[in-house]
Amino acid sequence: MTIRSAILEQLTELFEEDELDMPEFVDETVLLDTELDSLGFAVLVTRLDEELGFDPFSMMDEPVYPVTFKDFVDIYERFAPDEA
Amino acid sequence: MSGSASPVAVRASDLSVTIDQLDADIYGLRGQVEQGGVASLHTDDATIVAAAIHVLDGWAGEVHLLPPALDVEVLPAGAIVLEPSRAGAAVAGDSSLAGETMWIVYTSGTTGAPKAIAHTAATLSRTVVRSERSASFVWGLLYDPNRMAGLQVLFQALRTSATVVAPSLHEPLSERIAELVDGGVTAISATPTLWRLVLQTPAARELELTQITLGGEIADQRILDGLASAFPSARIVHVFASTETGAAFSVTDGRAGFPAAYLEDAPRGIELQIRDDILHVHSPGVSASGPDGFASTGDIVEVVDDRVLFRGRASGVVNIGGANVWPEEVETLLRQHDDVLEALVTAKANALSGNVLMAQVVARDAVDGKALRKEFRSWVRDRAPGTHVPAMIKVVDALDISTAGKVTR
User: Fold this and answer.
1) Contact B378/A43, CB-based, under 8 Å?
2) Most B CBs within 10 Å: which of A9, A18, A39, A59, as the mutation test of the B interface?
3) How many domains does chain A have?
């Protein structure tokens, strides 16, 4: 599973659990325009940490705030531990 | 060995000791410590702790009570490590008393090193009521006898000449409950966490309890109601006390929290004050009290109508997105759900929101985890601000419980 698809899976689950309207997530989707609030993103990051085994936001020296869905995915890809 | 005429004081899993045997210092403890001296006792055997109370209170200066395995670095230099031995027993020493003995118990050390708290017989037995009723109790000991709560039960029983049935802590709870049933136990003191487990133990239905005491953690309405329905003839007392302040006061009306009137009208002379949302009790005899004699209980409280309700431990507050959240409040909410037997909520650091809450839930029936997670999160969301909704909810078989009977955080 790619990082992008893992993120999408967790997003879908979270939107479903919280009974929010799931938009189509494309590269340009602005995160704050979705119904997920900042707390929701904290929840998403926690779940991705459990799923992927790392939390890029706790690893970065300078805080980076992703604006679009692509920014978010890029951050995870950049901090992904090197494996095979 | 005789002693059959003397009433049984402590009935352990493999040994019963009578009052006469305790009087005769069957473990030979008194000869090991000088009058006014400092000693430490490392045991989780209730018969040995009872013997120590019997022969050392008023003789030793300080007795430190520790679990068998705990590191002894915390002990003062020169402390005699007591070695209970049935062999060299029955040398009753000088019977004169040195004065007040300090009983030093150690907190579970959930946050770092164990903390020593000094008590006296007076502060440990402040809730003791000497009545015909209490003398006829047979106490069941589910607590570790070297901890505050277990020590209180032993003091209570010895002071009222009641019997204590004390199954070994190393046995599973179902077997310990069976021993309490066999021993004819009528009174048990336990934490709400332990009581929830007791109610899940089939043998518990055979207990004929007339006295139920809850302490050590927040007693929510649900556990009070559950006990009232399982043991309709029992008097249910929830005790508000902490290791830091010794025995404090109790409530018997079956409602969570305590009457707000207690803030004006001190219950049994124990003055209460709320300072910065934290409950303080007037407890001048203990080491943790300030110059004015008030000691912090560390419990965050809130006055709701005619009731003072507990929100959680001051040390346990979690900042989530700028809001203060007490994990215990979320646990209480989760336990109100019919499918939840037990819940533990902890904090996990998060770069975006400061912290998030992580919940572990013991569900009534093993059902689909995903569906339950959704159900439990929306249950909390419908009843509390979004900051209280756990980020993750794991359905587990059981929670870890400490020897003090509390959920391990």
Assistant:
1) no
2) A39
3) 1
